[in-house]
């Protein structure tokens, strides 16, 4: 239980005090009424004695009484009605609320820190009122009248006669059978005569004389002259007299009710009024009943006969307002009590009470106790006194008490008033009232036995109850508190007597006693036992006290506390005590909050919300409902729907109170602020027929860190080219779409008149759909004039003047249950300045008819749309994005700091040009190497001209706009539909196999020395694109050499003609996705020709072998490939002619076929090479058809140069990886085997598609760099290296001198044998056949070479012997020569044969070394092909 102001030792004596009746004449009542008080009320503040009093017990022992209090009340002849008492108790509880600003106790139990009010004044008020308002009953005498004050005024004509009348009246009420109420303690009631004298108005001498007369008649002990009203009430009060009555009159106590003498205070049922008020101030009801001059009438709690039964107080919610007390307080606050009384008068009244108690009441009680004691002794024939008898009673053989259940229901048994059992009870009660607890206990114990023997259960229960209390209050505690007495009493009252009021009194007393002994568990059990359905108020208060018991235990039971608080709150709610219900739920919430009891939390929040709403605490109601909605609710959809509707309903009422106030923050739907994305620019246009718009950036694209890095590199590349190779320090990559991955530390730049789209990520945590209507962005804008002044304009909503910023409104946005959905909201800036996007504003509602509406009915929604809206509230949610955690400096690493995120604060800048790019006839699928012509359209959709248009791509070999030399024809896509992509010339059929020569410079094709081949200027006419203008340019595409899906990124860069300070350039992105399928695979090798002289008589011929394989699988519908032309391109070499033996000049390859070509290549003429710049390439075309494709023109040369530059790039990278410390000697030897010859194979493919035959064209490049090494058109797949064993030792670091490879050395010297192919010799004439053979040695390097020719070599391998017969060289067997740079030397040799046959003359071994080198690199210069000679016999 909660702490109380009084201890239990003070509480019980104050609850059971001697009762005194007061009977006043009308004149006396008038005198006290001048102070707005009745006579009984006048005495109330002074009714406690200030000093100890003494009396003697029956054994003549002196007994001390401390703090004695008496209760004076007006005589009321009607018992109070239970309904009225319930009403009174209800008002007392509702009037007592926790004090404002009361500091609650903080109790720490386990993980819980609870703020709990330590005291419960409403419970104490209830208990006090309950104990005071108990009606007197026949089985106990504690609240029967012991005495009666008869009060008359000194101003009456015949005061003494008036006293006689009053005395007769009292006698009539007590002894006439018409009056069963009030109850009197004994027939011989003490009468005390009080003469009231008005000091300010009355005659003092007359009063004194009357008083003397009274003393003669009634004795000095039986009368008193009380002087009051020492000042007039209308006189301006000079001194402030305290008002001790207010605290008693504020308490709506039963005595207070009884004290109003003026007519029946009735509870009238006024159907029209909100509350049923007790008429407390009965001054207006001066009614005489039965024509009596006196004033006992119906009890002031008497319910009017017209009272409506529906106003029963305990009906669940029928007490709509507990304002009666409140209004009474208001009525009383204006009235000053005791206005005519001075402090002297106060002392006189106090003295009067003392005199009455000392001289009248206590002697009367002492006498009565003696009489009763004597009666009992004489009746029972017992020994002299009860005192000496008690031992006998207790020590004798005990009769076992029968259990309650064995006793038959005899609660109806009534004793006559003079029955000896009742006399014992009377004596016990008297002793109890004067705090003689030992004697009281003895008497109660005796009476209890008698009653139990007679099975008078009501009497027995009463005796048990008071025996237990007396035992507890006995000084020195000779015996423990018999709690079982109380339990038996409670059970008897409740179950047998069906008297819940008496049972409740037992529980209240016993629980208080147990609490004082720290037996909280037993107290709680007792309190809970008495909760029942018959009284919600009582159950609520007892449950609350039980909860306090649980929390006050040695080890607090927090969850039990919370559970019983919830139960108490529920019962308070049923009893109409809304404030107390709300308080209980709030206190219990502390325990359930945040502990995962989500359903319990929801229930508590829902109830708090409803109670707060009923009490018009709308903010609390909104907050509670908000909690239900924002926690991850585990409720069913129907329940969530109900919660949401309640929330909307309450919110609507709140917003109606302050319609002009700021918009409230709404809790739903959730917004994932960090997922907010901002996009600057127009939405992408959809593809229009053959026109396909550039993909650019859009909100539909997922963020990919790799690709964003690629785009950044491309932009840096083009900016570097524009700024002569240096990236400016203020360069910042363009970001069109800002998200949580982008760098948002700077204010983003937006361009005026271009929309800003904000994508907001909503999530609906509920299972019911949410409908957002009129959804738009909330923003603040500071406009910048051209003069630079700031004009701030804050627009919370779209108003009628969107001059600065236009705002898009989404009329309906539906989010289904548990769905995440994004909304894209647009702003249209029309002015430069600073924009701050603050959040979103919308109406939150739910769909009507989604669930049956329970609880509060749906309001008719004034909404027409796709979904019918049940109810909605206008509100906002802010977008607050936390920036990235900073982690750079030491301070940032040690503390948690976040950087700014400025994606929602764009700066609006001046106009910029805006480019749109469209691709026409752009393919999605190509064959590898296929050339296709498409068109690109550039459109300037802004009001500014644009210039400096460039395109940059990581794959420049994929496309070209053509070289500088080309005439751009035809310009329109339709005109060129059936033309070849190549520039062609018709040739006559004679020049079939010889090459046609042309030349071109790589500078013309944008791939000159030092240039960035990836950055390509777009050849705009006049280099400027005016506002609204568009231009179409041809664009050739070549399918990449690897098959598969290729993503090719283009970045278009452009600038404004007039420079802007903030934005220097703009970009447009496009990603082309091309799927390539296999076409041809070309392999080529080059080797030295054995024929030493060409037509010009110079050495250095080469043979080029080209293998072409059709690797296409027939899925693409390709029938066959025609090789139409093979071209070469080189600075030093060119193809001369085809040496194919087949006469078939049409080279066709069906699926999986392979063709072989052989060409002769010669060096370009020296003078050509010398006079031309080093970037000049010679192109030679060998045609297999009747059309020559000019390979030195666009697009053939473009793609050749592009692939060449990308290959060179790769080669450079790999060279950088190698060690560069290659010795010069090795380098020279390497050079001998290098060749710089590039082969371009041009082809046509015939494709059948939809029964139409199409001709596709294409080209493959093979770059020949090394003699004898095979080169391929498409990159070869590398085999993964085999796994090696792990080595656990460090290899010794021995530097091996770099040696040239065998292949490189074999190319140092070129050897060639000149001899007749067949030789006829008459062996029968001459047995030895001698054949002259010339051995030509050609030095391929630029250095002097020492050569050794050794002819002694014999072929030892048996295979060689079988094929070729054996022969011998005659003459010198070894020659040593030195060949100068590129010198050709011939040696005349003789071969000797002994019989016919086929011989291989390629046996001489040639060793070579560089002359100036010490290190000799020698290797046998084996000829690649056998030199066969046929020797015939003639």
Describe the structure.
With 1434 residues, the chain is α+β, with helices and mostly antiparallel strands. Helices cover 28% and strands 26% of the residues. The strands form twelve sheets. Strands 12, 24, 26, 28, 30, 33, 38, 40, 42, 44 and 45 form an eleven-stranded antiparallel sheet that branches. Strands 14, 16, 17, 19, 21, 22 and 23 form a seven-stranded mixed sheet that branches. α11 runs antiparallel to α13 (420-433) and α20 packs antiparallel against α21 (578-592). The protein is rod-shaped. Residues 252-298, 302-332, 382-411, 794-801, 851-865, 966-978, 1168-1172 and 1217-1221 have low confidence and may be disordered.
Could you give the distance between the termini?
144 Å
Mean pLDDT: 79
Overall geometry comes to: rod-shaped
Class based on secondary structure composition and strand pairing: alpha+beta
How big is the Rg?
A: 60 Å
- Give the total of beta strands: 56
Detail the poorly predicted runs.
Answer: 252-298, 302-332, 382-411, 794-801, 851-865, 966-978, 1168-1172, 1217-1221
Biggest sheet record: 11 strands, antiparallel
State the helical fraction. Answer: 25-40%
Proportion of strand residues: 25-35%
- Please report the number of helical segments: 31
């Amino acid at each position: 239980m909660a702490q109380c102001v009084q201890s239990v030792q003070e509480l019980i004596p104050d609850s059971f005090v001697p009762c005194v009746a007061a009977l006043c004449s009308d004149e006396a009542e008038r005198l006290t009424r001048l102070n707005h008080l009745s006579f009984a009320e006048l005495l109330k503040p002074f009714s406690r004695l200030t000093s100890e009093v003494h009396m003697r017990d029956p054994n003549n022992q002196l007994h001390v009484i401390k703090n004695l209090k008496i209760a004076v009340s007006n005589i009321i002849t009607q018992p109070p009605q239970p309904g009225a008492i319930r009403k009174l108790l209800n008002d007392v509880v509702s009037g007592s609320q926790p004090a404002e600003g009361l500091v609650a106790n903080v109790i720490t139990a386990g993980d819980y820190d609870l703020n709990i009010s330590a005291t419960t004044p409403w419970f104490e008020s209830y208990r006090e009122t309950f104990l005071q308002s108990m009606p007197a009953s026949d089985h106990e005498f504690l609240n029967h009248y012991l005495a009666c004050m008869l009060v008359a005024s000194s101003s009456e004509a015949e005061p003494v006669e008036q006293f006689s009348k009053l005395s007769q009246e009292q006698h009539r009420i007590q002894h006439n059978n018409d009056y069963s109420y009030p109850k009197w303690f004994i027939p011989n009631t003490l009468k005390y005569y009080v003469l009231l004298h008005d000091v300010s108005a009355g005659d003092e001498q007359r009063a004194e004389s009357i008083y003397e007369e009274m003393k003669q008649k009634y004795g000095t002990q039986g009368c008193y002259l009380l002087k009051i009203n020492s000042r007039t009430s209308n006189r301006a009060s000079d001194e402030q007299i305290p008002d001790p009555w207010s605290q008693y009159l504020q308490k709506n106590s039963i005595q207070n009710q009884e004290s109003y003498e003026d007519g029946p205070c009735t509870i009238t049922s006024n159907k029209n009024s909100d509350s049923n008020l007790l008429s407390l101030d009965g001054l207006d009801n001066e009614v005489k009943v039965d024509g009596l001059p006196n004033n006992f009438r119906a009890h002031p709690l008497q319910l009017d006969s017209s009272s409506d039964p529906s106003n029963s107080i305990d009906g669940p919610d029928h007490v709509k307002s507990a304002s009666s007390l409140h209004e009474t307080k208001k009525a009383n606050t204006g009235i000053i009590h005791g206005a005519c009384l001075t402090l002297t008068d106060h002392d006189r009244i106090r003295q009067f009470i003392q005199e009455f108690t000392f001289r009248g009441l206590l002697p009367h009680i002492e006498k009565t106790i003696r009489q009763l004691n004597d009666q009992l002794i004489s009746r029972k024939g017992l020994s002299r006194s009860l005192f000496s008898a008690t031992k006998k009673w207790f020590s004798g053989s005990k009769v076992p008490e029968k259990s309650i259940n064995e006793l038959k229901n005899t609660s109806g048994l009534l004793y006559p008033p003079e029955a000896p059992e009742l006399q014992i009870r009377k004596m016990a009660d008297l002793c109890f009232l004067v705090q003689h607890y030992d004697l009281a206990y003895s008497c109660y114990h005796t009476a209890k036995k008698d009653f139990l023997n007679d099975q008078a259960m009501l009497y027995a229960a009463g005796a048990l109850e008071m025996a237990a209390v007396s035992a507890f209050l006995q000084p020195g505690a000779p015996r423990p508190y018999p709690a079982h007495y109380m339990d038996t009493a409670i059970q008897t009252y409740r179950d047998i007597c069906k008297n819940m009021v008496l049972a409740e009194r037992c529980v209240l007393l016993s629980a208080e006693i147990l609490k004082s002994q720290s037996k909280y568990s037993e107290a709680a059990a007792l309190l809970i036992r008495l909760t029942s359905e018959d009284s919600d108020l009582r159950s609520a208060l007892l449950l609350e006290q039980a909860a306090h018991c649980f929390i006050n235990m040695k080890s607090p039971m927090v969850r039990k506390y919370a559970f019983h608080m919830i139960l108490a709150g529920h019962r308070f709610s049923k009893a109409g005590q809304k404030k107390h219900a709300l308080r209980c739920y709030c206190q219990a919430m502390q325990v359930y909050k945040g502990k995962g009891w989500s359903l319990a939390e929801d229930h508590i929040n829902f109830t708090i919300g409803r109670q707060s709403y009923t009490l018009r605490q709308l903010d609390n109601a909104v907050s509670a409902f908000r909690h239900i909605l924002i926690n991850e609710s585990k409720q069913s959809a129907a329940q969530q729907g109900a919660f949401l509707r309640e929330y909307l309903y309450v919110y609507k009422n709140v917003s109606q109170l302050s319609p002009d106030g700021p918009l409230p923050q709404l809790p739903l739907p959730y917004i994932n602020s960090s997922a907010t994305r901002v996009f600057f620019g127009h939405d992408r246009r959809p593809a229009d027929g053959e026109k396909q718009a550039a993909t650019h950036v859009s909100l539909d694209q997922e963020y990919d860190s790799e690709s964003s890095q690629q785009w950044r590199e491309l932009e840096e590349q083009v900016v570097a080219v524009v700024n002569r190779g240096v990236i400016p320090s203020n360069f910042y990559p363009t970001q069109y779409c800002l998200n949580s991955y982008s760098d948002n530390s700077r204010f983003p730049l937006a361009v005026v008149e271009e929309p800003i789209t904000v994508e907001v990520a909503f999530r609906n945590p509920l299972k019911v759909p949410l409908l957002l209507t009129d959804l738009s962005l909330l923003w603040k804008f500071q406009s910048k004039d051209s003069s630079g002044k700031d004009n701030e304009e804050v627009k919370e909503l779209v108003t009628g003047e969107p001059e600065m910023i236009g705002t898009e409104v989404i009329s309906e946005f539906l989010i289904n249950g548990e769905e995440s959905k994004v909304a894209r909201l647009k702003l249209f800036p029309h002015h430069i300045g600073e924009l701050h996007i603050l959040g979103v504003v919308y109406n939150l509602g739910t769909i009507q008819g989604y669930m049956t509406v329970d609880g509060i009915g749906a309001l008719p929604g004034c909404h027409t749309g796709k979904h019918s809206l049940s109810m909605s509230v206008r509100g906002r949610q802010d977008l607050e994005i936390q920036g990235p955690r900073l982690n750079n400096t030491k301070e940032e690493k040690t503390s948690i700091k976040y950087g700014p995120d400025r994606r929602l604060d764009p700066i609006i800048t001046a106009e910029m040009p805006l480019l749109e790019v469209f691709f026409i006839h752009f393919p999605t699928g190509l064959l590898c190497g296929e050339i296709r012509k498409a068109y690109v359209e550039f459109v300037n959709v802004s009001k500014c001209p644009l210039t400096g248009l460039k395109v940059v791509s990581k794959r420049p070999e994929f496309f070209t706009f053509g070289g500088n030399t080309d005439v751009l024809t035809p310009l329109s896509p339709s005109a060129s539909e059936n033309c070849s992509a190549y520039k062609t010339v018709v040739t006559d059929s004679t020049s079939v196999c010889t090459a046609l020569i042309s030349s071109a410079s790589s500078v013309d094709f944008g791939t000159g020395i030092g240039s960035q081949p990836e950055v390509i200027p777009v050849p705009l006419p006049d280099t400027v694109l005016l506002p609204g203008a568009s231009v179409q340019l041809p664009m050739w595409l070549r399918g990449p050499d690897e098959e598969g899906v290729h993503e090719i990124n283009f970045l278009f860069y452009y600038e404004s003609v007039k420079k802007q300070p903030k934005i220097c350039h703009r970009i447009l992105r496009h990603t082309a996705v091309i799927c390539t399928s296999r076409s041809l695979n070309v392999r080529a090798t080059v080797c030295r020709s054995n024929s030493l002289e060409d037509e010009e008589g110079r050495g250095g011929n080469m043979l080029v072998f080209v293998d072409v394989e059709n690797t296409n699988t027939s899925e693409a519908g390709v029938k066959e490939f025609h090789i139409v032309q093979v071209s070469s391109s080189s600075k030093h070499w060119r193809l001369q002619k085809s040496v194919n033996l087949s006469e078939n000049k049409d080279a066709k390859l069906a699926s999986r076929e392979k063709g072989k070509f052989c060409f002769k290549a010669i060096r370009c003429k020296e003078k050509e090479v010398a006079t031309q710049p080093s970037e000049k390439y010679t192109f030679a075309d060998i045609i297999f058809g009747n059309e020559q494709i000019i390979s030195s023109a666009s697009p053939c040369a473009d793609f050749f140069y592009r692939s060449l530059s990308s290959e060179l790039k790769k080669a450079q990278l790999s060279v950088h990886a190698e060690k560069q410390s290659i010795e010069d000697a090795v380098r020279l030897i390497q050079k001998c085997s290098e060749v710089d010859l590039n082969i371009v194979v041009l082809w046509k493919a015939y494709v059948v598609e939809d029964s139409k035959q199409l001709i596709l064209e294409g080209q493959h490049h093979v770059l020949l760099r090394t003699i004898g090494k095979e080169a391929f058109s498409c990159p070869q797949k590398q085999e993964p290296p085999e796994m090696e064993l792990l080595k656990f030792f460090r290899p010794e670091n021995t530097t091996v001198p770099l040696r040239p490879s065998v292949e490189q050395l074999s190319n140092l010297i070129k050897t060639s044998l000149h001899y007749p192919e067949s030789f006829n010799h008459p062996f029968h004439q001459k047995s030895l056949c001698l054949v002259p053979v010339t051995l030509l040695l050609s030095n391929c390097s630029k250095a002097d070479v020492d050569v050794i020719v050794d002819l002694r070599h014999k072929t030892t391998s048996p295979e060689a012997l079988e094929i070729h017969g054996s022969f011998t060289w005659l003459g010198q067997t070894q020659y040593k020569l030195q060949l100068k740079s590129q010198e050709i030397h011939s040696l005349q040799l003789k071969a000797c044969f002994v019989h016919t046959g086929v011989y291989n003359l390629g046996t001489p071994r040639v060793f070579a070394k560089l002359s100036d080198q010490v290190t000799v690199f020698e290797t046998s210069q084996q000829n690649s092909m056998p030199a066969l000679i046929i020797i015939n016999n003639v």
